[in-house]
Amino acid sequence: MLRLSKKADYALIAMRHLAANADRSAVSARELAESYDIPGELLAKVLQKLVHGGLLESHQGTRGGYVLGRPAAAMSVAEVIQVIDGPLTVTACSEIDHSCDQFSKCNVRDPLWRIKDRIVSALSSTSVAELAADMPALPASTAMPVAVVRK
Amino acid sequence: MLRLSKKADYALIAMRHLAANADRSAVSARELAESYDIPGELLAKVLQKLVHGGLLESHQGTRGGYVLGRPAAAMSVAEVIQVIDGPLTVTACSEIDHSCDQFSKCNVRDPLWRIKDRIVSALSSTSVAELAADMPALPASTAMPVAVVRK
DNA sequence: CTAAAATGGACTAGTTCGGTCGGATATAGA
DNA sequence: TCTATATCCGACCGAACTAGTCCATTTTAG
User: Fold this and answer.
1) Chain C: nucleotides under 7 Å from a protein CB?
2) How does pLDDT run across B32-62, given as a tens digit for each residue?
3) Which chain B residue shows the shortest CA-CA distance from A88?
4) Phi, psi of B22 (to 5 degrees)
5) How distant is C1' of C14 from CA of B82, in Å?
6) Is the CB of A24 under 7 A from strand D?
7) B88–A1: do the CB atoms touch at under 8 Å?
8) Bigger pLDDT: A45 or B148?
9) Helices and strands (H, E) in chain B, number of each type
10) Three-class secondary structure of residue B56 per DSSP
């Protein structure tokens, strides 16, 4: 699998939106949720975590909302994911967690850790700014010719 | 997260073992399970999947067991994982699955797919043979000086 | 014939995940 | 000062998934 969680997805979508509209003032959780059809209260949680992680700044009260905590170029996809889902690990074990039943006898740990490093580097070398630069703007309906979908 | 499943772990451990002992005759599921403290019947299922996927060959009956289906150098970690856990996907959506609620409005899909490609390439470029070459042999207790573990 | 092995389906307990609910606090603007 | 609109935060819930179990069948070497 290696799939990232829905919360992490939502976080990246929100970060990308805020990066693309960095000029505008704070954007509310509600506005983001409606723009992307994300359950509002869940997105709110995600945004709060991003605030705790220092990736966003929040402004409470009427006309409040969220703004990037740092320049988009200085925040990586890896950071966003880690703030939401915790440490990036491919295996159950890590340098500080030997609790896996197979730890002592495991014969694939080292090579897998090395693969993990490559994955982390792929995620770390992509900045939120790059996410935002990737596609035109939001409402510009991405009219790419969708390939025929067969079940 | 991005963690791979326990079954995939078990599969890799087994593949590595069989690659390292490719000279010997078939190894039984039971023997593998005992060597690595893996629940026997679960490992059996995993091995069966690997057979279906063509990565292993099985011999039934007394003194039966499993052997590599191809040279270890011709099987990648990516293949093993896919045979066990299905297609490698980072996002809920893919080229053939647009069922994600956010698909139409998603603004991070393309960059994430590109990251996925990098991950797949990391997994595809590591062969089972490399796994096996990585550490000495099995019982040679890896006496690496374990760093002090705190909490 | 028998013991050891793979095969394969059904089932279960536990955990995680996505999502919801409710209340508390903060604040801009009328 | 009052109110609508926000963030904040903890508790909760159902569904899906995961790891693991159980059991019955088939194959085959000795």
Assistant:
1) 3-9, 17-22, 25-29
2) 999 999 999 999 999 999 999 999 999 999 9
3) B1
4) -65, -20
5) 25
6) no
7) yes
8) A45
9) 6, 2
10) strand
Residues of chain B with confidence (pLDDT) below 70: 135-151
Q: Report the residue of chain B nearest A15, measured CA to CA.
A: B108
- Interface contact flag, A135 B107, Cβ < 8 Å: yes
Distance between CA atoms of residues A22 and A73, nearest Å: 12
Are B65 and B27 contacting, i.e. CB atoms less than 8 angstroms apart? yes
Helix (H) or strand (E) holding B66: strand B65-68
SS3 content of chain B, % helix, strand, coil (to 5): 45, 10, 45
Name the residues contacting strand C (CB < 7 Å): A 5-7, 38-42, 45, 59-64, 85; B 1, 28-31, 41, 44-45, 47-48, 51-52, 58-66, 101
**8-state DSSP, B100:** S
Better-scored residue on pLDDT, A135 or A76 = A76
Q: What are the beta bridge partners of residue B65?
A: B59
What pLDDT is attached to residue B135? 60
* DSSP state letter for B74: G
Q: Per-residue pLDDT tens for A111-127?
A: 999 999 999 999 999 99
Compute the distance between CA of residue B4 and CA of residue B14 in angstroms, rounded to an integer: 15
Please count the residues of chain B. Answer: 151
Q: What angle do CA B98, B104, B110 make, to 5 degrees?
A: 75
Least confident of A31-40, A137-146, B43-52: A137-146
Residue whose C-alpha is closest to residue A68's, from A81, A50, A56: A56
Selected residues 26-85 of chain A with any CB under 8 Å from a CB in chain B:
35-38, 77, 81, 85
Q: Which residues make Cβ contacts (< 8 Å) with residue B5, sequence separation at least 6?
A: A1, B84, B85
Is A126 near chain B, with CB under 8 Å?
Answer: yes
Residue A135 has what pLDDT? 59
Give the residue-averaged pLDDT of A60-83.
97
